[in-house]
Design brief:
The complex is a heterodimer of chains A (353) and B (201). Chain A is α+β, with helices and mostly antiparallel strands. Chain A is built from eleven helices and 13 strands. Chain A folds into two domains: 153 residues, PurM-like, N-terminal domain (60s Ribosomal Protein L30, Chain: A, 2-Layer Sandwich), CATH 3.30.1330; 185 residues, PurM-like C-terminal domain (Phosphoribosyl-aminoimidazole Synthetase, Chain A, domain 2). In chain A, strands 8-11-7-12-9-13-10 form a seven-stranded mixed sheet, sandwiched between helices. Chain B folds into two domains: 69 residues, Translation Initiation Factor IF3, CATH 3.30.110; 115 residues, DsrEFH-like (Hypothetical Protein Ychn, Chain: A, 3-Layer(aba) Sandwich). Chain B has six helices and nine strands. The chains are: A alpha+beta (353), B alpha/beta (201).
Chain lengths: 353, 201
């Protein structure tokens, strides 16, 4: 024994100002660049980038379509194992949002060779591995770049039957909208960074970010859902707008029904509004009609950037209650109906109180 | 009136906004506040927050440093679109239609009267602030109704067309509403209580 005292655990958050999906390029900036690129077209490309979907889908044969996606970002929390789990759950989620199941995953790693103990990388990868195993997939490799600050995520391949793909574009009027996880993780992460979030609330946010959308995807498929997405960096309203536009319907969201993580509203009331909320507000406001006198903090929480957020999907109202019961029974106690789809109006989204 | 300065230099987002909100909460209405920020994104976010809450600041940039100055308003952090509400009284009125016909005579006559009413509203000066449709009145606004065009014209002239959501659901027309905004009891009651007059033909 050397008698050396173990170093204090490395705090990953000390490496970043912005983390998680907050690190995304502004959606408007991305659209500006993408509009100059010719869209790839191929008879077997079933879902491309035109509808802002979560993953690309390519038909291999009549029975099988391949889902391909990747996602990676800088740390959203201090603990490397938890960061690994969250980044992996977030990347795997894109397969679930398309209604698929996971086949294989590869690590995407940016990590400085010298400034952070290598054991931290080991923990990140172990956290990612846990989630890939939980997904039923296989980890098949990866790629590592020497870079600061660290970033981690996965490239994921999944499969889905070509007739069972769940996309942004499949909504029609008259559906109930279900959200499976509470909002507010971006606010709680920001609140924890400035010392305002309570430990208990912050732990709950970390737990929901580590949770896979696997069971939620199973419920979507069991109830023959055609349209859905996962809620990530653009916030509920950003992703809702993408679905509304891709489907040519209007989404009516009742703000008071949207589930929130404990402590998120109190933090917003204190002015703890992550910068990405304002970015997302700029993204959606021209196409959103907000109710008069909507609570300001609640409005902003509908724009809270989520990391590894829940699924939001449209379902026939007659089936909604039963789907909710299954979601509640399979790990999503906050799942609830947050609104409905209506015929297309001038606005993509109506937010009512 | 007193002045308060907030030095948010060197603070990471969203700390400058939190400090601004703290200072606002602690200040009396009429207080002049100024916030020093050295990050443009943070500055824009605080500026937007204040504008949304009825206190648009003046922003002075000096190199990398931004100074936002504003006066705390009387009704602190009022809802952003409260101004969109009409002031009670003085000449404003709302037209409220509780059926797809007018009066208790023959339905055919009642339908003709509705048509006449919608055509006449467009000629009124001033226009009503709102046209509210509830009960079977919502049927005027659904796909296939002969009145959709007239309603759309009225809406385009700046009259807010509110449709009772509960009624639309009752008639299972929620997805067939072609014009107007689906609203709820609370919003509709607020409009009615703020109206100078309510016309219910």
């Amino acid at each position: 024994m050397t008698g050396v005292t173990p170093a204090a655990p490395f705090d990953l958050l000390s490496t970043v100002e912005y983390g998680g999906c907050s690190a995304k390029l502004a959606p408007g900036s991305l659209a500006e660049v993408l509009k100059h690129l010719a869209l790839s077209a191929h008879p077997d490309l079933l879902v491309g980038i035109a509808t802002h979907d979560d993953a690309g889908v390519y038909r291999v044969d009549a029975e099988t379509a391949l889902i391909q996606t990747l996602d990676f970002f800088p740390p959203v929390c201090s603990d490397p194992r938890e960061f690994g789990r969250i980044a992996a759950a977030n990347a795997l989620s894109d397969v679930y949002a398309m209604g698929g199941r996971v086949l294989t995953a590869m690590n995407i790693v940016c990590f400085p060779a010298t400034q952070i103990p290598l054991a931290v990388l080991g923990e990140i990868l172990a956290g990612g591995q846990e989630k890939v195993i939980e997904s039923g997939g296989v980890m098949v490799g990866g790629h590592t770049i020497d870079d600061w600050p660290p970033k981690y995520g996965l490239s994921v391949t999944g499969v889905v039957h070509p007739d069972r793909i769940i996309t942004n574009a499949g909504l029609r009027p008259g559906l109930a909208l279900i959200l499976t996880k509470p909002l507010g993780s971006g606010t709680l992460v920001a609140g924890a960074r400035v010392g305002l979030a309570t430990g208990c609330d912050y732990r709950a946010a970390l737990a929901t970010m580590q949770q896979l959308n696997k069971n939620g995807a199973a419920v979507m498929q069991a109830f023959d859902v055609k349209a859905g997405t996962d809620i990530t960096g653009f916030g509920l309203l950003g992703h809702a707008m993408q679905m509304a536009d891709a489907s040519a319907v209007t989404l009516r969201i009742q703000a008071s029904r949207v589930p929130l993580l404990g402590g998120a509203h109190a933090l917003a009331e204190q002015g703890c509004l992550p910068g990405a909320m304002f970015r997302n507000l700029a993204y959606v406001e021209k196409k959103t009609r907000f109710a008069a006198n909507l609570d300001y903090s609640l409005k902003m929480l509908l724009l809270d950037p989520q990391t590894s957020g829940g699924l939001c999907f449209g379902i026939a109202p007659a089936k909604a209650q039963q789907a909710l019961e299954q979601l509640h029974a399979t790990g999503y106690p906050a799942a609830t109906i947050i609104g409905e789809t209506i015929g297309r109006r001038a606005h993509s989204i109506e937010v009512i109180r | 009136m007193s002045n308060t300065s907030i030095d948010a230099r060197g603070q990471i987002c969203p700390k400058p906004l939190i400090m601004t909100k703290q200072a606002l909460t602690a200040s009396a209405p009429g207080t002049t506040l100024s916030v020093l920020i050295d990050n443009e994104t943070s500055c824009r976010n605080v500026e937007r927050f204040l504008a949304d809450n009825g206190m648009p600041p003046t922003v002075v940039q000096d190199g990398p440093l931004f100074t936002l100055s504003f006066v705390k308003n009387e009704e602190p952090l009022a809802a952003p679109d409260a101004a969109a509400y009409c002031v009670p009284g003085a000449g404003t009125y709302v037209v409220s239609l509780a059926g797809d016909t007018i009066g208790r005579g023959s339905p055919e006559l009642g339908a003709r009267l509705v048509k006449g009413l919608l055509a006449t509203i467009k000629e009124l000066s001033p226009l009503p602030t709102h046209l509210i449709l509830y009960s079977s009145g919502i049927l005027l606004a659904v796909d296939g109704s002969p009145h959709v065009e007239a309603l759309a014209e009225i809406e385009q002239m700046g009259v807010k067309l509110l449709i009772c959501g509960t009624c639309a659901d009752y008639y299972e027309k929620g997805s067939a509403i072609h014009v107007g905004t689906i609203s709820n009891m609370l919003d509709i009651l607020e409009v009615l209580t703020r109206a100078g007059k309510i016309i219910a033909p």
